[in-house]
Specification:
Radius of gyration: 27 Å
Number of helices: 6
Largest sheet: 2 strands, parallel
Number of strands: 2
Order of helices and strands: HHEHHHEH
């Protein structure tokens, strides 16, 4: 019985006519429940675009570094293979083991750099959502809503309840790209 009551209340909140007031004048839908697409909120905001551009540039640098390292290691391996016939088997085994250790060490270091980039992107997203929270709370108050749900978790809703575009606009106005002047997400 309780799930039916919750569903009925939610449905009623979505279909109630707009109440006159400041929220309607500001273009904010009057609804007890709002929806938002947080992935799009982040990706299309100035902050999200700046972060993506920075991560992409750093990824390109890392990829170039990986290609250079790979070429150096291939040349070193080729040289070691060419010298194999000139070196005693025990000495060659020692050189081959050292080379293998070097390769493993480099791989671990490069993997750590890639993980750090991913962690930085995740951290920036968390900082963005924390910083965006007051803007979202204001939109929620203006609409008379009691909750904002992730749109992908909602089975059916009116498009009027989606505040993603409005939130992007207001967040961009409040924090810009969060770069040097906004001091968010910078290292």
């Amino acid at each position: 019985m309780r799930p039916i009551l919750v569903f009925a209340l939610a449905l009623t909140a979505l279909i109630l006519p707009l109440r006159p007031g400041s929220a309607q004048q500001l273009g904010v839908a009057q609804s007890a429940i709002l929806t938002i697409e947080t992935d799009r909120l982040f990706a299309e905001s100035a902050f999200g675009r700046r972060t993506a551009n920075e991560i992409e540039a750093e990824s390109a640098v890392l990829a170039a570094e990986n290609r250079r390292i790979e070429a150096d290691l291939m040349a070193e391996e080729k040289d070691l293979t060419a010298r194999r016939s000139e070196i005693a088997p025990d000495a060659f085994r020692t050189l081959a083991d050292a080379f293998d250790e070097k390769v493993q060490s480099i791989r671990k270091a490069q993997d750590a750099k890639a993980r750090a980039l991913n962690q930085r992107a995740d951290k920036a997203r968390g900082e963005f959502l924390n910083t965006a929270r007051p803007v979202l709370e204001t939109l929620m108050r203006e609409s008379g809503a009691g909750v904002i749900l992730e749109r992908s978790n909602v089975f059916l809703s009116a498009n009027a309840t989606d505040i993603t575009d409005r939130a992007i606009s207001r967040i961009d106005a409040a924090i810009g790209d969060g770069g040097k002047n906004g001091a968010i997400g910078d290292q």
